[in-house]
Write a structure and sequence with these properties.
The structure is a homodimer of 497-residue chains.
Chain A lengths: L7 H18 L4 H17 L1 H12 L3 H24 L6 E3 L12 E7 L3 E4 L13 H9 L3 E4 L5 H17 L7 E4 L4 H9 L5 E5 L2 H13 L6 E4 L5 E4 L1 H20 L11 E5 L2 H15 L9 H15 L4 E6 L12 E6 H5 L12 E7 L2 H10 L3 E7 L2 H6 L1 H8 L2 E6 L38 E7 L20 E3 L2 E3 L7
Parallel strand pairs in A: 1-16, 3-4, 3-6, 4-5, 6-7, 8-9, 8-13, 9-12, 11-12, 13-14
Antiparallel strand pairs in A: 1-2, 2-15, 10-11, 16-17
Helix pairs in contact in A: 2-4, 2-6, 3-6, 4-5, 9-10, 13-15
Chain lengths: 497, 497
């Protein structure tokens, strides 16, 4: 057994080392953290194409797709390193003393500091970008937190290679070993022991609702509850409006056939629900979408568990009362998995059947046909929190259906206009999160450098002399970061009084 | 019965109105929100000194103390209104499109939007500043959320008057009535029904650990869990170091006698634990502190429940093995409550008795005598999360005991040097929060305008045309707010491409 489950004793040792490392790592400079993160990127790059071969074997994802994901992962590490050094995320605030106020106003300065060891559970569908050295790990390192990764069993060899790259970067940057730990475990007990360990101070997770909700519940049952950021997926509703469909049904259908089936539908931003009003435009859209879906070949999914879950959930959804099959792939494939398929239901059928609101993880989408704007509004009001929602509309549509569109905005984290939800840009402006059950905390993102703030908390220094303050808050602003000084953003040094 | 408990049906009506109001209130401009908040301050001011008389009757707090708290409350409303309009809290981020990238990079813009109706539970010890129109309410209004206040039964008449002022401001600003609701309830059921209602989207609470933890647990058991910011108090440890005591024991003792007994010790930042190393300095400090404490008169506490809890907890703490009474007030008072008292224990007694780590809410403090720096370190490592921790030391002490001081920093939200923890400045640099059990979420503050962010979440607009974007994110920056544009903070307009 190469990848043996960690024992409770081994987990305790790992967590003790992580805790010891935390007290060293939290004190290194932003520049040193950034340099460490850039080293990780270099070491991953140095693994070369051997990494792609192994990951492709483990995940059935084609190498070109993995190459793009590797580039994205390196970009994450490097761009979050830049953000770490830039220091905006520290939310540095300074209010200078007013000694002659009654009572005297003390000097008060605030910045974010790391929470402590962060436990990361990666996702099977992004073996690089949301896994061992993915966004959660990068954000935690930027915040000043050690990381413990529980290796995803579906790509354990990939995870081991990436862990090796991180460990090399730890050594090259003269950091304590405990800054990064890599734990194997297929059993429920390993995950729970890591979550419940007192030295674990926060959790990042990407995966299923069941998985994320368990972590959330365990964390809240701890003597000292800890923050959990679990991204648990979404059906990513798409709303198609009449004028847009009248003019562009074919074009929209092509765009959506591609989005629904991209990477065998294995994205948390996959458009699993399309809502529209009955009419010629929708009829044409459905016709065009059917033609496109029929032409897309089935393909191997990430692993047998995902393939069988997809087959079961899709069949169950498509066999519900008043659900009509619109199209399935007509391309014959040996060992076919991940069959592209679309179905349709009336708004009334959808409203009365909660099963149809559930995510079917794979290349599947349900089209909900509404008789009126009111019915569409009812659908929106019944939807749970979503990572994304998309409006496909002309400006006339937007003006005409403003009320529905405004309600859609209130249930999602990312709000897309005339586009597709797949494709999550890595940028500061990205929000990859959303109201529960899309995530466990809608106030944070797991993509973009704002994700660093999930793993940090403010500390406020009152009345400390300049030489005892951390560099980030010193009068002379030696790191040249943006700070809010007496309510005004500034990079200026603070004059002594 | 003037203040009758709300029924489940009444609570449901209140929460429906709040939800309806939310969809109007969230769309008004920052300037309109600020104007509403300033109106509330005016209406509270217009209540005049009648308000102070009634509150003093209800809480036993003297009018001069209440006058200061009223000023603070008005300042909170007005300064958070300013912060609301300034818009830094929106965390506006813009990444402009790169159409010729492969694949094309879309235009992405992000800002914070309100969570929805916020439920506020005020504190008995701050009938204005942490109650009906206190910090939580002000932050929620600034964020764009309606507020439902559960009136504190210990100052129901005060709460009713303040609620009346808020309702006047609602009318004067032509806002929907449901923007603010005031619910009475002494029973457990009223609080729980409000927490569990699906339209409640976040909770602000200041009070006991038991109260806050119940809200936290209920919220996490909801079908859709919601964020709870509960500030649950703290023992606010103070660390006195040798050189400082050698030179200033008497001065430090005077300062601490005042802090321990301020407002009959009824502050969540009351210094309940003083930790030091044995020696002449500590002996002198204890002697001087005793003399001061003996001279402080007992006084009526906020209500009978708090007075009896104080008496019981103090007696229990002082009767523990190896706990020695150092001094109690020698001032005789009729109807004496809130007896100033200090006790002392060895570090070993403290380390072996968890009861001594608990908050004794009132004018009481325990002095823990350590034999060595190592013992002091053990005490720090055993302490739970704290709102504040204070270092009383010379710069030599800081250099000599850096390891202990660094460990102290890691357990607190506010870190004070040569001062007292009582007195919480209302400023952006303030952090009133701390690791659990000081609060349920150490990443947020309940004092200062950063508290607005507790009640808001990001939304990300992808590919929207300029005229469909909210003002905060439009190219021309009509609100003249700070935004991070392509990773750089700026107030500039964005050039069209």
């Amino acid at each position: 057994m190469k990848f043996q489950d960690a024992s409770i004793e081994e987990i305790d040792i790992v967590m003790q080392e992580s805790w010891t490392a935390f007290h060293k790592y939290r004190k290194i400079s932003l520049a040193q953290r950034a340099s460490f993160m850039r080293s990780i990127a270099e070491e991953i790059e140095a693994l070369g194409d051997e990494l792609l071969h192994i990951t492709s074997e483990e995940t059935n994802l084609p190498e070109p797709r993995l190459r793009v994901e590797r580039t994205r992962t390196l970009f994450q590490l490097k761009s979050y390193a830049d953000a770490c050094e830039r220091g905006d995320w520290l939310e540095a605030r300074i209010d200078t003393a007013i000694p002659d106020r009654n009572p005297p106003k003390p000097d008060i300065r605030k910045m974010l500091i790391p929470l402590g060891p962060v436990l990361v559970f990666g996702a099977s569908n992004f073996p690089y970008a949301y896994s061992t050295a993915g966004g959660d790990t990068a954000c935690a390192f930027a915040a000043g937190c050690p990381v413990i990764v529980k290796a995803h069993p579906a790509h354990a060899r990939t995870s081991e290679m990436i862990a090796g790259a991180i460990k090399k970067a730890v050594q090259k940057n003269n950091l304590p070993e405990g800054v990064f730990a890599h734990v194997y475990g297929t059993s429920f007990e390993v995950g729970k022991a890591l979550v419940m360990h007192p030295n674990t101070k926060a959790i990042g997770f990407t995966g299923s609702f069941q998985g994320g909700k368990s972590l959330f519940d365990w964390s809240n049952q701890r003597k000292v509850p800890i923050p959990v950021f679990a991204e648990m997926g979404s059906i990513n509703p798409v709303f198609l409006f009449p004028e847009k469909l009248q003019t562009s049904a074919g074009e929209v259908a092509k765009m959506y056939a591609a989005s629904i089936t991209l990477s065998v539908g294995q994205f948390c931003t996959n458009p699993g629900l399309i809502v529209s009003m009955e009419g010629n435009g929708l009829t044409e859209f459905i016709y065009e979408l059917s033609n496109e879906i029929k032409k897309v070949a089935p393909a191997k999914m990430l692993h047998a568990g995902i393939a069988s879950a997809y087959a079961e959930k899709r069949k169950l959804a498509m066999s519900q009362a008043d659900v009509e099959t619109i199209a399935v792939s007509e391309v014959e494939e040996i060992n076919a998995e991940g069959l592209p398929a679309i179905a349709s239901a009336t708004a009334q059928a959808f409203l009365s059947n909660p099963l149809l609101h559930q995510e079917v993880f794979g290349p599947y989408s349900l089209i909900v046909r509404c008789k009126s704007e009111e019915e569409m509004m009812q659908v929106v009001q019944q939807l749970e929190g979503q990572l994304t929602a998309t409006i496909v509309a002309t400006e006339n549509d937007v003006n005409l259906y403003g009320k529905v569109i405004d309600a859609v905005k209130n249930i999602c984290g990312r709000f897309i206009y005339n586009g597709v939800p797949t494709g999550v840009e890595v940028s500061l402006s990205m929000h990859h999160g959303g109201p529960f059950p899309a995530t466990t905390d809608s106030r944070f993102t797991s993509v973009g450098a704002d994700g660093i703030k999930r793993f940090a908390r403010p500390i406020c220094y009152q009345n400390w002399s300049n030489d005892l303050l951390p560099d980030e808050l010193k009068n002379e602003n030696p790191l040249n970061i943006w700070r809010t000084v007496n309510d005004q953003l500034s990079k200026n040094r603070i004059e002594e009084f």
